[in-house]
Task: structure prediction
Amino acid sequence: GDSVTQMEGPVTLSEEAFLTINCTYTATGYPSLFWYVQYPGEGLQLLLKATKADDKGSNKGFEATYRKETTSFHLEKGSVQVSDSAVYFCALNEIAGKSTFGDGTTLTVKP
Amino acid sequence: NAGVTQTPKFQVLKTGQSMTLQCAQDMNHEYMSWYRQDPGMGLRLIHYSVGAGITDQGEVPNGYNVSRSTTEDFPLRLLSAAPSQTSVYFCASSTGRHTEAFFGQGTRLTVV
Result:
C-alpha cells in the first residue's frame, strides 16, 4: 500500500537558518503530493502541493519538488523565522478523499 | 467562510459509552474523511466518503461507524468507547485527488 516516510524529528534551528525536511513516498500509481502545516491547537492547512513529476510547489518561501526518480518531495526554506515553528506533514493522494500522511516533523525556530 | 466545522472541540467519555462526533462543510465538497491523530503516528484514515450515500473503510475503521446522508454532513459514531480511542479526531473535505484537503479544528477525545 501507499506510505510516506518523513525525516525523524524534532528539528530545532536558529532564526535565518536553512531548513530541509526530507520526505519519501511509496505509491503504486502517480500520486499528488502535499505539505501541510499544523499550528498548536489547530487543524492541518495546506502549505504547498505538486500534482505531477518535476512540478515545484512553493508558498511563503517554502519549496518542494516532485522527484519521481527518487520518490521524494523534500521541503526547503532558505531562511526560517520564529513564526515557522509548527508541525509539518508530508502527504500523498492516489484516491480522492484517502490521503496518506507521514508521521510529522516538529520544527522549533529560536530567536 | 465556515469551511469544515467539527463539534464538540473536547469530550471526555467513560469506557463503554457511545457518542457521535459531528462534521459539517459548507463548500459543497464531494469527498469527506475522518482521521485520528496520535502522538508520533501522523494521521490515520478511519473512514471516508466519495459522495452522499457512499462510504468506505480506511486504515483503522474498527469501533467506528459513519454515514453520509447529505453532501454537507459526515458524522462519526463511536459505538462503545475504549481507552484506545483516546485521540484527536479530524474531519476533512476535498474536491478531488489533485486538490488539498480542508480540515476542521479537531475534536480532542479522552476515554477513561
Remarks:
- Chain B is about 0% helix and 50% strand.
- The CA atoms of residues 10 and 108 of chain B lie 5 Å apart.
- Chain B touches chain A through 29 residues (CB under 8 Å).
- The two ends of chain B are 36 Å apart (CA to CA).
